[in-house]
């Protein structure tokens, strides 16, 4: 266990030397440092870590109250006890209001000083334990949705913890379905900004003509339909983090304005006449090759370097095959809970097939595949028959060929959409009733539909569940 650290700042050298000798003896397990140079203390205040500070109020070079304020900006701030002249109660009260824990008046007796210092050290110890506990809870919460113990995943965990301790812009790169947004949320959740919610924007989902307004806000009357002031996402994320999801799809016209905001740390809403500062940490994700986009002049190189101060890569599922059994078991429990059905076991041969199978869509594709496995398995074990029923791509598994006559026979969109939906519904209901042997209540539970909704579907299709019952 590391010793607690006590710093004493006073301009009286003789008193400092005497206190250091006495306190080093009386306060067991406490490292005592003294300084008669408050200017040096002020200059090094962010580099020095102390649990307790005994600080004189009146010093010629730097006022003790200014040092008190500076200590309050440390992370975490130390417990500060002020030394005041006899009878200067007004100054002591002011110090307490500005963050001091306690005060002691000069001249003081050593037993009185020891009593005050021990109380301050105990407070610092409790605060330290509380901070450690909060960090542990925050870390557990931040990694709630992460699974895996393979080497690539462990490296990712370590990268997240390291990045959380900085305020650098982070570019999170990886294939689709590898959990890039989860990484961004974990970095924010472990950071000093976690007391405020992460603000996220899916860049491709917002039309180009609206994206600038969403990011930077707009004044009333800035454009047709701007009926009131709109707070942009940068302003909403002030003091927190902003996630720019799929940044590679942001239009070049908006890239230029985004670059300016990142450089100046100021925004100007559309239609506004004044800039104002924002304190925002930028987290970005992409599954694209931004370097190629820079060559194609569809992504600004200077913006790339602003966003890519630090990179983190999310591993693809093929790089962490040893974690697939863990993921499959988790997804199976999750789906059973969603459907309200009994838990299911994965047969060993099925698990082996899932581990060897290629998953270009990564964890998201695996999760959807497990959903189909559970859905079409009324028994307690997911076996080879269940795997065979859903092993093909969804369209082929349902017996649907999108364009059976070739591309030349493409029909109107709405007609083709209706045909595909009808074909899927027929095949789905047929498999569902076969698995449940015509038990409508069980079929409804497995499918996630209400019994009434499923019954209406059967009536509309003219399907009699009795024909599926075993004689």
From TrEMBL:
Keyword Repeat: no
Gene3D superfamilies in the cross-refs: 1.10.8.60, 3.40.50.2300, Homeodomain-like, P-loop containing nucleotide triphosphate hydrolases
Pfam families given in the database record: AAA_lid_14 (PF25601), HTH_8 (PF02954), Response_reg (PF00072), Sigma54_activat (PF00158)
Residues where 4-aspartylphosphate is found: 56
Keyword Signal tagged: no
Protein name as it appears in the record: Sigma-54 dependent transcriptional regulator
Molecular function terms from GO: ATP binding; sequence-specific DNA binding
Alphabetical keyword list: ATP-binding, Nucleotide-binding, Phosphoprotein, Transcription, Transcription regulation
Family matches, as CDD domains: AAA (cd00009)
Every Sigma-54 factor interaction domain range: 146-375
Source species: Desulfatitalea alkaliphila
Domain Response regulatory, residue spans: 5-121
GO biological process: phosphorelay signal transduction system; regulation of DNA-templated transcription
């Amino acid at each position: 266990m590391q010793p607690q650290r006590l710093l004493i700042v006073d301009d009286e050298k003789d008193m400092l030397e005497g206190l250091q000798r006495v306190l080093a003896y009386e306060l067991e397990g406490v490292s005592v440092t003294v300084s008669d140079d408050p200017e040096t203390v002020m200059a090094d205040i962010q580099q020095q870590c102390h649990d307790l500070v005994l600080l004189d109020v009146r010093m010629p070079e730097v006022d003790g109250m200014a040092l008190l304020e500076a200590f309050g900006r440390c992370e975490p701030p130390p417990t500060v006890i002020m030394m005041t002249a006899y009878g200067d109660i007004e100054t002591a009260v002011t110090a307490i209001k500005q963050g001091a824990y306690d005060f002691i008046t000069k001249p003081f007796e050593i037993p009185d000083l020891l009593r005050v210092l021990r109380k301050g050290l105990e407070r610092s110890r409790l605060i330290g334990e509380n901070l450690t506990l909060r960090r542990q809870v925050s870390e557990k919460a931040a990694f709630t949705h992460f699974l895996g113990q393979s080497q690539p995943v462990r490296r990712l965990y370590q990268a997240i913890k390291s990045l959380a301790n900085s305020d650098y812009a982070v570019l999170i790169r990886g294939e689709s379905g590898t959990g890039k947004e989860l990484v961004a949320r974990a970095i924010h959740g472990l950071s000093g900004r976690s007391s405020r919610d992460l603000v996220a924007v899916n860049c491709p989902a917002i039309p180009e003509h609206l994206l600038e307004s969403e990011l930077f806000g707009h004044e009333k009357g800035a454009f047709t339909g701007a009926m009131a002031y709109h707070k942009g996402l940068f302003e909403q994320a002030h003091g927190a983090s902003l996630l720019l999801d799929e940044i590679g799809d942001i239009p070049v016209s908006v890239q230029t304005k985004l670059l300016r905001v990142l450089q100046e740390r100021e925004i100007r809403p559309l239609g506004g006449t004044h800039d104002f500062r924002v304190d925002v940490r930028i987290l970005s994700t992409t599954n694209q090759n931004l370097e190629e986009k820079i060559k194609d002049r569809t992504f600004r190189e200077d913006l790339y370097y602003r966003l890519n101060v630090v990179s983190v890569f999310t591993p693809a599922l093929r790089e962490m095959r040893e974690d697939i059994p863990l993921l499959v078991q988790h997804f199976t429990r999750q789906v059973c809970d969603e459907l309200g059905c009994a838990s299911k076991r994965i047969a060993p041969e099925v698990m082996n097939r899932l581990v060897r199978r290629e998953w270009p869509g990564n964890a998201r594709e695996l999760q959807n595949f497990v959903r189909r496995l559970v859905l079409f398995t009324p028994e307690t074990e997911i076996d080879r028959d269940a795997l065979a029923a859903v092993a093909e791509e969804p369209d082929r598994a349902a017996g649907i060929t999108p364009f059976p006559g070739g591309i030349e026979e493409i029909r109107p969109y709405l007609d083709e959409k209706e045909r595909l939906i009808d074909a899927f519904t027929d095949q789905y209901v047929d498999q569902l009733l076969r698995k449940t042997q015509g038990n409508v209540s069980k079929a409804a539970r497995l499918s996630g539909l209400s019994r009434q909704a499923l019954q209406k579907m059967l009536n509309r299709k003219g399907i009699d569940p009795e024909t599926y019952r075993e004689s």
